[in-house]
Design a protein that fits this description.
Keywords: Hydrolase, Membrane, Metal-binding, Metalloprotease, Protease, Signal, Transmembrane, Transmembrane helix, Zinc. With 653 residues, the protein is α+β, with helices and mostly antiparallel strands. The protein binds 2-acetamido-2-deoxy-beta-D-glucopyranose (NAG) (9 copies) and zinc ion (ZN).
Length: 653
């Protein structure tokens, strides 16, 4: 029996979580897939018999190995790129259609519900962010001519040049990764018996296709070999078909069956992995970087988009970076740098021989949704740099104003995350040694550790369990000698506070105390048995009844001049899965650095006038304006970095 459930739209991806740092195998999987590129004129504008004859007119091009350009052998494909300018229709939110593959394992009611919710949530987030030119009429995928055809007519002057001359009798079906594509989703195909004569035999007729679909996501629930050999794997994916402009049209995500079943299943983590995989399939893929198109300043003019050409290059330290205009600009904004060579660095640990990876360098863009490993869900962000990259594919219009502040490395300058700077023991983000402290969001206690992706740099990672300050159930059974309080407004503070009755001195570690914001980077804290005390950002305070001090973190806490409570509920909508319901950090207010026009000069890999795109600049300016008020306001709250004696008020219980 067919198990074909429809969900509005959705996607998947391979990931892993928390300390069991699994890794995303997308590149490996994508490498094994033959991507079918539709020929120009085969997009679903025709219906019925005409489309199959049109489709057959030009050979379907295949990229057998993403890194080898096989296009030259398929003249039809070359032609397809000759004309990209056609009537540009407006961009509308992408319609992602999810299709549960028939091959999928049967699921229990509970697991099916989990899957449906995760897919639904994923699709709704992604379609809020990305817009495309809608495909008119039903989406029909193309068949791989190299599969159904034994040979093509090769006489260039013949009428049936590059059409199928003889059918491959063993041809059965088309696949997308491990999924057999239903015939109903596919265009027909025909064989031409003579190089010049019109007589043809239809091998297959066009299917009905899928209405209202811009991307078809096949979902395969399966306990595959990859799933069973890599226990941390939740899902993996690849795209398998693109339109003539190179935009991916269909892909498959394999979701490891056991992961849906497990007791520790987490909706947030699953959705994040699915978004990560979907972003890969939609264009954030090393096999696609060089097919990204520069449409920024042609969109309004109605002109043609052209290829960026090569968008990746090595920096002077030999690190591969992406240098497209919106990406450079986004990273400059994030790090508060005007460095013109600030391309966004790609992960070197999973790079191929040419240095390309489909992930950001973890040390620089740690909590990005497109880092190679995703951390604790509450810290993962759909950041501006990732959205800028999707914008620079040229296939999408991206609502950049919905980017979530990365927090990690904010305003730290262009050298942030370099191997030479991460051992600085005054860093707010990296740590040295192996002590206990606070994760940089201050929501969790953490332990100073490294992992392969950090390449020797160390950060405070959340403890395996019980590290969330905001979770009441983490409260220890016995009275805390350090005055800890675990509740929703609690955060992690470096401190060596201990009740005066304790005689031994204690070392500084992460402890949970309540906090409330009183202004930009201005807050009060509360320790067990005390009232609210000002905690000057960057300073430290003593607390009566306790020995030792509490250090007051800079920058991270109260980065909006709003009380934490209202931040928790504001403007999260579909993004609540990304954990921002717990973070008091959203879009941060970085003074907008004037773009340096020299950024592109002398870098022929970039397009000529990257800053002229109103599309990119407008949201950035808007964000700036809305933050300006807070920024100016914030100056009035300059805090002395001094130790302040605080007399505790009696506890109100
Ligand atoms: C998925 O979302 C659609 C609307 O976006 C809704 O009608 C449907 O009930 C949702 N499915 C589940 C399982 O939540
Ligand atoms: C014919 O199709 C089969 C199955 O898809 C494939 O294994 C075989 O290589 C094809 N033969 C030719 C000549 O294309
Ligand atoms: C190629 O096709 C043309 C036109 O049909 C024909 O005149 C010519 O002889 C063909 N060449 C070969 C090598 O078959
Ligand atoms: C697509 O929409 C058209 C027009 O509304 C309709 O006739 C057709 O049956 C639909 N196709 C499918 C596959 O739903
Ligand atoms: C972008 O997102 C913001 C915030 O959700 C929304 O207000 C705005 O209308 C969106 N812009 C577009 C062009 O969709
Ligand atoms: C950004 O950099 C400028 C120039 O170096 C500096 O004056 C400014 O304070 C920085 N802004 C932030 C938020 O760090
Ligand atoms: C930080 O590093 C400096 C120089 O390496 C060292 O003198 C200092 O003691 C270190 N501070 C801490 C708190 O480890
Ligand atoms: C973590 O949880 C496990 C199982 O619930 C428990 O046995 C263990 O003691 C906990 N570890 C910490 C540090 O709380
Ligand atoms: C707490 O730490 C501070 C700073 O490291 C140190 O000066 C102080 O002596 C410590 N106090 C106790 C009671 O350990
Ligand atoms: Zn990935």
């Amino acid at each position: 029996m067919l198990h074909t459930l429809f969900y509005p739209a959705l996607l998947l991806l391979p990931l892993w979580f928390t300390s069991t740092s699994g890794r995303c195998v997308f590149d490996e999987v994508q490498q094994s897939v033959r991507v079918v590129t539709q020929a120009e004129g085969s997009t679903s504008t025709q219906i019925g018999g005409t489309s199959s004859s049109r489709a057959a007119k030009q050979a379907t091009a295949i990229h057998q190995h993403p890194h080898q350009t096989t296009r030259g052998t398929f003249p039809g494909h070359l032609q397809s790129h000759r004309k990209m300018g056609r009537a540009l229709t407006a961009m509308s939110p992408i319609r992602i259609h999810t299709w549960i593959a028939q091959e999928s394992a049967t699921l229990s009611e509970v697991d099916r519900e989990r899957l449906a919710l995760a897919l639904n949530h994923t699709v709704s987030i992604v379609s809020t962010l990305l817009s495309v030119r809608h495909i008119p009429g039903p989406l029909l995928l193309s068949r791989d001519i190299n599969k159904y055809c034994k040979f093509l007519w090769r006489n260039v002057s013949a009428a049936n040049y590059n059409r199928c001359g003889r059918v491959n009798g063993s041809y059965r079906n088309e696949n997308c990764l491990s999924v057999v594509i239903p015939d109903d989703h596919l265009r027909g195909c025909a064989v031409f018996h003579h190089p010049d004569a019109p007589d043809r035999t239809e091998l297959r007729y066009d299917g009905a296709g899928l209405n209202n679909t811009d991307f078809l996501l096949y979902v395969h629930i399966h306990n595959s070999h990859r799933c069973s050999t890599q226990p941390s794997m939740l899902a993996y994916a690849a795209h398998c078909q693109s339109d003539p402009q190179g935009r991916p049209l269909a892909g498959t995500v394999v979701i490891c069956r056991e992961k849906l079943r497990q007791e520790k299943y987490r909706h947030e983590a699953t959705v994040q992995i699915l978004i990560h995989e979907l972003f890969h399939m939609l264009g954030f893929s090393r096999t696609l970087f060089n097919t990204w198109r520069d449409c920024l300043h042609t969109l309004q003019a109605g002109g043609e988009c052209h290829r960026h050409g090569r968008v990746t290059n090595l920096d002077d330290k030999g690190h591969m970076r992406i240098y497209t205009p919106s990406v450079v600009r986004a990273l400059q904004k994030h790090l508060n740098s005007t460095d013109p060579t600030l391309g966004a660095p790609l992960e070197d640990l999973d790079a191929d021989s040419t240095g390309l990876s489909s992930h950001w360098e973890a040390r620089v863009l740690l909590s990005s949704i497109m880092a190679a490993t995703l951390g604790e869900p509450s810290t993962v962000r759909i950041d501006l740099i990732t959205l800028a990259a999707l914008q620079d594919t040229g296939w999408y219009s991206v609502n950049l104003s919905q980017a979530q502040s990365l927090v990690w490395g904010q305003d730290e300058g262009s050298l942030f995350g370099s191997l030479s700077s991460c051992h600085d023991n005054t860093s707010l983000y990296f740590c040295t040694g192996s002590g206990l402290g606070c994760h940089y969001h201050h929501l969790h206690k953490g332990e100073c550790v490294s992992d392969p992706y950090l390449e020797g740099c160390r950060i405070y990672k959340p403890l395996a369990n019980g590290s969330e300050c905001w979770k009441e159930e983490n409260r220890p059974e016995s009275v805390s000698w350090s005055g800890e309080i675990y509740q929703s407004d609690s955060r992690c503070f470096f401190s060596n506070l201990s009740r005066e009755s304790i005689s031994h001195s204690v070392s500084v570690a992460g402890h949970c105390y309540r906090h409330r914001c009183t202004g930009l980077h201005r807050y009060q804290i509360r320790v067990s048995g005390t009232g609210w005390m000002d905690c000057p950002s960057g300073g430290a305070i003593e607390v009566s009844g306790y020995a030792g001090v509490v250090f007051c973190p800079e920058k991270i806490l109260c980065s909006h001049a709003l009380p934490a409570t209202s931040l928790n509920t504001q403007n999260h909508g579909v993004f609540s899965v990304l954990g921002s319901s717990l973070a008091d950090l959203k879009y941060s207010c970085v003074p907008h650095t004037t773009p340096n026009p020299e950024v592109t000069n002398g870098m022929d890999l970039l397009s000529p006038k990257p800053w002229q795109s109103a599309k990119v600049i407008a949201p950035v300016l808007l964000a700036f304006t809305s933050c300006l008020v807070i920024g100016i306001f914030g100056v009035a709250y300059k805090v002395l970095h001094s130790q302040v004696r605080v007399y505790a008020e009696p506890s109100d219980g």
